[in-house]
Each structure stands twice: as structure tokens, then as C-alpha cells.
Amino acid sequence: MSEEAGQDEYEHHGGFPKYVPADVGPEFGRLVEALRTLQDLAVSTAPSPEVTLDLAERVEAINDVLKTFQVPEGQPPAGRVMTLPGRGSLLMLPWTVEKFDAEGVRSRGVFRRFHLGGNGAAHGGTLPLLFDDMFGMIQHAYGRPISRTAYLHINYRKITPLDTELVIEGSVDRVEGRKTFISAVLKDTEGNVLADCDALMVQLLKGQP
Ligand SMILES: CCCCCCCCCCCC(=O)SCCNC(=O)CCNC(=O)[C@H](O)C(C)(C)COP(=O)(O)OP(=O)(O)OC[C@H]1O[C@@H](n2cnc3c(N)ncnc32)[C@H](O)[C@@H]1OP(=O)(O)O
């Protein structure tokens, strides 16, 4: 799809902002990593009431600074820095894209303490998040217009460990009119399948949110 055609598609799909890669310095990646460590620590520590109060006041002071820089959707760098884990978004898993083209997308990373479900394994709800974001990237890399996930079917095959390098890879299986069928597989570095997933993404009609 040409750049011009891509812009045309964006213009015809409701209020979706146009997402373009963000140009940021190393300080942004440093801030995101510090915040991810904060998330890990927030769910894995039990500080005393005095320390908790002190921390609450310090985080509130940080929030007061950040509040003055709020901008509309599509404008923060979060989610738009392809070179950063999770594209620099705290919501996304801290995974790094290493292949991104029409043939498919591959990404590598770890589930961290923040993503703990139970008994040392990743929370089951974090896997669909990883797959759904992958599917968005896959259909975008394939050149499909803005679409939304209609269904996402996941099979949990093995326990997904924390703090262990894993790989996810997927591609477009077929396109039928507005419908894009996509699948992806999550594996460990020895090739064991931890989960697989397939989804339908439906191209939005003019004016659809
Ligand atoms: C670098 C970064 C890039 C990033 C690039 C940015 C990418 C942004 C990605 C955003 C992803 C999301 O937001 S996902 C968010 C979670 N998803 C949602 O919120 C979607 C909520 N659902 C909807 O909005 C709607 O149901 C739609 C748009 C999915 C479909 O509604 P519709 O437009 O009225 O279409 P409809 O006629 O119902 O269906 C069209 C065709 O699809 C089929 N179909 C529809 N739903 C299903 C279903 N669940 N299971 C089977 N088939 C289905 C129908 O049978 C029909 O087939 P046929 O009769 O034609 O054969």
C-alpha cells in the first residue's frame, strides 16, 4: 500500500488519529524503564505505613508535574516508539519488535513481576493483551486499513514463566473483504509452544468508532 493510499484509508475511518512514529531521546526510554521497575516493585513489596505515606506523597508530586503536560490521543510518545520495549507504552508488554513486514511480525521479551498471575506464572489476561497488540501490528505491517478485533481465541498450552526470554511470531492467514484472519504463536527459546492464538479483525466502515 502506498503512503498516499494509507493516508486515504486513515481519513475514512472515523475519529482514529493517525499514529506516526515518535522521535524521542534516550531520556524517554529511561523514564519508561524506571516506571516499569516502579510497577514491579509496587506489586512485590510491603513497606511500612510510614514509608508508604512518604512514597505516596512523592508519587503525587511526580503526578502533579506530569499533569501539566497532558496531550490528546496519538500525541504522547507512549506506544509510538518502535525501538523501545512495548513501543514505550506502559500498558503493553515490554517486548521488542525484531521483524515487521508484510510476511509477519516477530517480537521478543519477558513477562515481569508486574504481570504475575499465580504460582510464578504470567496472569492469563496478559497473554491476550500481548497477542492483540501483535495482531494490530501484523495487520498494519501487511498494509490492511484500520480494523478492530472482532474475536480473539487463545489456547494456553503451557505455563508462561516470568523473567524468561520468550518469542511471539504471527502473520496474516487470509483476507476476505473487510475481514483479516491472523494467527500467532508464543514460544520459549527452546521452541516449546506456550500459547497460540487466532483472531478476526474487521475493517472499519466510514464513521465507525
Ligand atoms: C505501529 C502500530 C500500528 C497500530 C495500528 C492501529 C491499529 C488499531 C487497532 C485497534 C484494535 C482495537 O481497537 S480492538 C478493540 C477491541 N475490539 C472492539 O472493541 C471491537 C468491537 N466490535 C465492533 O466494533 C464491531 O463488532 C466490528 C467493527 C468488529 C464489526 O461490526 P460491523 O462493522 O457492524 O461488521 P459486521 O457486519 O458485524 O461484520 C462484518 C463481517 O465480520 C463478521 N464478524 C463480525 N464479528 C464476528 C465475530 N465475533 N465472529 C465471527 N465473525 C464475525 C461478520 O459475520 C461479517 O462477515 P460477512 O457477513 O461479511 O462474511
TrEMBL record:
Record keywords: Apoptosis, Cell membrane, Cell projection, Cytoplasm, Fatty acid metabolism, Hydrolase, Lipid metabolism, Membrane, Transit peptide
Subcellular location: Cell projection, Ruffle membrane; Cytoplasm; Membrane
Domain Thioesterase: start-end pairs: 119-194
Entry annotated with the keyword Plastid: no
CDD domains: PaaI_thioesterase (cd03443)
One matching Pfam family: 4HBT
Membrane topology: Peripheral membrane protein
EC id: 3.1.2.2
Chief location category: membrane
Family according to the record: Belongs to the THEM4/THEM5 thioesterase family.
Full protein name: Acyl-coenzyme A thioesterase THEM4
Organism from which the protein derives: Rhodococcus sovatensis
